[in-house]
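Notebook entry, structure prediction.
Reason for the run: the old model in the group folder had no record of what sequence produced it. Starting over properly, with the input documented here first.
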Amino acid sequence: MSLLKVWQARNQILEGILNRIFTKEHVEEIALERMSICKDCEHYGTECLMPGTAPCCAICGCCLELKTRSLSSNCPEHKWEAIMTEEEEDLLNEQL
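New structure, fully documented this time:
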């Protein structure tokens, strides 16, 4: 993942960070399910875009602790999909 891709995905990254810090039960359930899928994937590993953020996806370089908590993110291999758009998640978070 290049720095340009990181910039383009900044909202999803921030979403994952916020959901990691301010945990919500429904997000944690989704993250656990997604992470179990990732752990069985051949692309699960330590080839991270940002050092020290393992485990990561070797395809996109994303930190899986954050990506799995971003409800508007999806797996680059289509093993799990986004549940909502970034706009829908922003509205949901405003209501919580």
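Summary: The helical segments are 3-8, 10-21, 25-39, 64-67, 86-95.
The old model has been moved to the deprecated folder.
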